[in-house]
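Cross-posted from the bioinformatics board.
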Amino acid sequence: MIAIAVAEAVNAGKAWLDAAISAFHRCEGAFSLVIGTPDGLMGVRDPNGVRPLVIGILETEAPNTPTQYVLASETCALDIIGAEYLRDVEPGELVWITEAGLASFHWATQPQRKLCIFEMIYFARPDSIMHEESLYSYRMRIGKQLAIESPTDVDLVMGVPDSGIPAAIGFSQQSGIPYAEGLIKNRYVGRTFIQPTQSMRESGIRMKLNPLKDVLVGKRILIVDDSLVRGTTSRKIVKALREAGATEVHMRISSPPVTHPCFYGIDTDSQDQLIAATKSVEEIAQQINVDSLAYLSWEGMLLATQEDPNSFCSACFTGDYPIPVPEMVKRSKLMLEKQPASTSV
Amino acid sequence: MMPNSDDCTTETTNADPMDLGRVARPDKPEEACGVFGIYAPSEDVAKLTYFGLYALQHRGQESAGIATFRDGEVQLHKDMGLVSQVFSEQILQTLGGEMAVGHTRYSTTGSSRVVNAQPAIAKTRLGTLALAHMVTWSTRPNCEKNCLNLTFSLSPPLTQK
């Protein structure tokens, strides 16, 4: 672990910063980290900046207090304690926070921006700021893009709570089809995507989402979700909507098909468990029992960022890993042959 | 071909330089996590870190931990569970200082153990460090050669200039 590597370098005679930087040069992969030492606080992002890390300032009225800094994975953690967002830690940057202030070191030889696009689509909170806007705004735009790419004639648009909701609102605004809530989430349990076992995922859904029968009965529904990784949750949601009286259930996914596992920090399981890696969109539509299914295009996803499309890692959709993945690590997730994916039926 | 991963966990540096129980090697690549750090001498850094982690709970719901620094001395509390389950007012009162780091962790089955909770603590000649990270694969100590397993790869250390 990095802690051991840093400690080793310190014990070999280096000072904190030299020790940390030499340890980072030995690290492969994606990492964002925070290190506390008796002499100061360090914040670091890997040379590709795959995972986010932000800097905030916490104002104080206490006299003779040095500038108070906060580091966090997302800006929502600054908001909650009343800290002001200052800036992102840059890819390949180390910030060193002490009584004397904040010092910046660009330690990587070839830094580049490869922010995980899945952070923007799903993983980070919608109230977190990336590229100077909330992720809610980005997710609304990908919903609009989805409506442009894959329109359909239905009575109501709804989102899978909570992460599908911003895109569903965007879809509704773009298409003019009314938005409604048809599934109420028990917000006091965790999200299905991040529970540890398949069996827990299977059993978790009923605890979490309760359909609103009077909203759904007799209606043609279009439901938007942020991603479709394994398909098990979607199948249960569709079943619940039909049982509640929906006459048609169409699904739209506000990201492209996830065909490749993530090696940079998000658990998307091994490739054989990714439904889009082994099945066509038609087969997936059949399996989850929807009347139609369409994914957002890869181009549409990047276009909606309004940023340089090369500044994102989208390897889970393409298999183009910006940081080389060691063969044995790859094998741990059972890589299949690379294959192109279509995005709709 | 595949090296025995046990080769890489032996302790070969200075006598007990780190708490290997706490920084044990995970079984699988680690997953997206939430990290938080604060330098705020005028504040209750433990409590602010708690609320920071509370806001980052979506990034990891398996374990949570906070390490605080007071004049170089580190206090640590971490355990399995949600941030709100791991910490109480009482526990937060035992933590304090001018600086803190915190972590929320998610992992897959097999490494759902408190030994994998963070922050990780390592003792050095310059004092203790506490590290909270989100990382996929990374370096390992004392495994300069032939050390590549399912979790980690290693490039040789840079020669000292």
